[in-house]
Structures are given as structure tokens and as C-alpha cells.
Fold this sequence. Notes:
Elements: H1 7-29, H2 38-76, H3 92-123, H4 134-144, E1 157-164, H5 167-174, H6 176-194, E2 203-206, E3 211-216, H7 221-234, H8 236-240, E4 250-257, H9 263-279, E5 284-287, H10 298-311, E6 314-322, E7 328-338, E8 344-346, H11 347-356, H12 360-376, E9 382-386, H13 388-391, H14 394-406, E10 414-419, H15 426-437, E11 443-449, H16 453-456, E12 466-469
Parallel strand pairs: 4-5, 7-9, 9-10, 10-11, 11-12
Antiparallel strand pairs: 1-3, 1-4, 2-3, 6-7, 7-8
Helix pairs in contact: 1-2, 5-6, 9-11, 10-11, 12-14, 14-15
Amino acid sequence: MTTGASVSARVVACVAAGFALAFALSLGVVPAAGRALQWPLLAAAHSAAVLAALWALRRWALAPRADLLAQIEAVSGGRFEPRVQGPVAEWVPLACALNIMVARVGLLLAERDQRLGALRAEVSLDDLTGLASRLPFMEQLAQALGLAAGSAASADGGVVLLRLNDLAGLNQRAGRERADELLKAVATLLRTRSARLRSEHALAARLNGADLALLIPAVSADVLETWAGELAAALPALRQLSLSDRQPVAWVAATTWRAGESVGDVMARADRTLQSCEAGSDAWRMTTAAQAEVIYGVAQWRTLIDEALATGRVTLSLQRVNAADGRLHHHEASLRMAVPGGAVLTGADVLPAALRTARTADVELRGVELALARIAAGAAPLIFSLSAQSVLRPSFLSRLTTVLSDAAQGAAGLWLQVDASGEHELASLITPLAAAVHGHGVRLGLHRFGLHGSQLAQFGGLGLSFLQLDAAQFNVGGAGGA
């Protein structure tokens, strides 16, 4: 390695040259007449020469500093550039140290980027299903909505959410292997059916344990609705393969979005649609970005429901149901809840939120009170629906008995029906409820009953007065003339 000249050696050379010049002048360069001024002039000349030499020497010695500073600034900017050693020997150790540091930092950052890339690739895929994970799904949705930096908003598109019915329970009842097989089968179904959309940027993902999703940019509402319906129709086959013991196997919710919407709004709308499926009788539903809707968080829902119950903003809407001869058979009551701003939410909006905020029993008990008031005003007979979640709570049944006992006009015109679309045993639903309403003249029935063969034998002794059958459980006009 070649080193530069030493600064100290050059300083000594400059001073020695000055003294040599003074000595030469003292030997006769200066005329005799001026010998009296010889030494002052020599001193001045020597000083000027030394100062000029030192100034030039300083510039020469400090010249490599600019290169070293530029190298350090390049590192801060992510550029790792080794520098050629300068001619000044005093700067050589620092230049060598900087080159070694730059090389090591560049190597460390390259290794970090490699590890981060491998980690990102690992977390971007769900190991079990092979689908994308939640993070890349949300990132691609943001890009499709035109929210990511530098991205261009694509045309309107859609999102499909699929939630497996009681996956955690299946894991406990049948084992993890069975639950994993169900997840793999649903993931395969999503992949194969998404190929029919012929969308280059469609992305299937597993968002969490039981929730899967499909992002479809540039899809029309009609195509999305048809696709979601076909997906929902294909899911019952997984139960026939004994991969699931629940009906429905999963709920499907589809929603369209518009470029410029926030990721939170799109996902909240899809989740809200999914909740309405879980609380209702439909295996799948669809909403569009154009449909007016109110989106609240869990804490907001809790506050809205509590305030509505306290201020009387929960009401009933009655629908007249006629018999074959056109005369009134009964009224069906459904909940309504007014919220600030003038919007009125239906039971399909309120009940899923009440379930998430543990307010189902309070809301349905208020519905019974309002139904009794309508019966007293002449609206009998009147059917009001109760959820299995409320009926299975002893505290709700105790409060229900109190409400029925306090009814001024009695409760003879009240028909209570329980949602039978779940997997609860009929006896566990009806027997406690029958005991709670005994002696008040209330008629009991089942709502969305699918004639499950294993439950038909339980009818005897339950005291049921009516059934409302779930048409989705039957293959009317299908194969075999069923």
C-alpha cells in the first residue's frame, strides 16, 4: 500500500528552505550599502515565504477531508462507496477505517434486507392453506382503492368474505386435522372459482382463523353477485363430505367498492354484511358501495343501543300476514331503532350488533314489551322472534316471566318463535322457554326450521303451536321430484 507524504515533513522542508534563502542573501546577494537593513529584510522575506508555503500546505493537507466527508454523507444516503486513499499520510489510517466501516455496514444491511425479504415472504402466505395472509391482502386492497403512495386507483371492484361456521367448535369435536382439512378444501374452492373471474389481480387470502377473503378488482356488481351465489351454493357439498357438521358450512358476504374509499369502510361494510348473514337465515348476502348504510364500531354500537333503549327509540314495525281467504292471520313484528341523524335501522342491522355487544337479551326483551303494548291496542295475534342466545340465558327467561306477568291486558295474543337454524337441541330451546311463559297464554313456535331428521322425534311433549319452515333446506322441484 502506497502512503502519501507526511505533512510534518513538508513543514520542516519549507522552514529549512527559508533559512537557506536567508543564508544565501547574507553572503552577498544584498549590496553592502544595504547591509544595515539586511536582517530585517531577510526576516520579512523569510516570514512571507514561510506563511505562503504554510497556506499552500494547509490547502494540500485538507484536500482529502472533502472526500472523506462525502463518503460519510453517501453512507447516510444508503450509498456505500469505498474511496481511494489520498496523498496525505496523516489521513490514510482514517480513510482505511472508513472504507472498512462502509464495507461492513453495506454487508450488514444487505444481510438484513435478505432476512427481511425471506420473513416477508414467509408471513405473506398462510402455511396451511397456501393463500395470502392478511397483510398483503390489505396492502393490495389499499393499492386498488388508490390509497397507496404512487398507486393509481383502479376501476370499481369487490370483496368477498367467507366465515366458517364454528371452526373452533369443530376443532374441539373432531380434532384439528378435520378442521385443517375443511380450511384447505375451502381455500381450494376459492382459488379454483376465482380463476373463473379472469381477473389478473384477484387475490385470495386467509385473514384469520375462520375468515377467508377474495379481492376482485374491476368487477361489476352483477358478476360479483353471481359468483358469490355460486360459491355459497358449492359450500354444502363440504358437509356431505363430512368435513363440517354445521349448517350452513360457512357464511358468504360480498360487497362492491369504489376507488377512493378507505380500506376500513370497505372491510366494515363487508363485515357488517357477514354479521347480518350470521344473525339471519341467509347463507350469503351482498351489498353495494352505493347502498346507504351506517357503519359503527363495537363501542359506538354499545352506546347507541343503550341510549336507544333508555330514550324509547327502539320500536316495532308490523307486517300483516293474511290467510288464504284474505283475512288477517297474524302480524309479524320486526325491530326498528332510530339513531342520531334521523336514520332508522332495521333488525337486520341492530341484532348482529346487539349480539356482538352482549345486548341481545335487552333488545329482545324490549321487543316483547312493545309487542304486548301493540296487542293491547288490538294488533293480536302477533309473532315476535327470539334468538337462541337469549332463550338459553336463565336471567332473560326470569325477566321475560316478569314482563308477561305485568302485562295489563294479558299476553294471550303473543306468539313467540325461536330461531331453530342453529345446532341447538330443540328441547334445550323450548323446554325452558315453555316453563317461563306457562300460564300466560303465549303460543310457542320455531322459526327457520329445516326438518332435521334427528330432531323430528323431539316434537312430542314440547308444546309447540306452529312452525315456520326454512325454504332453503328443501330442494323443491329438484331431482327425484322432492
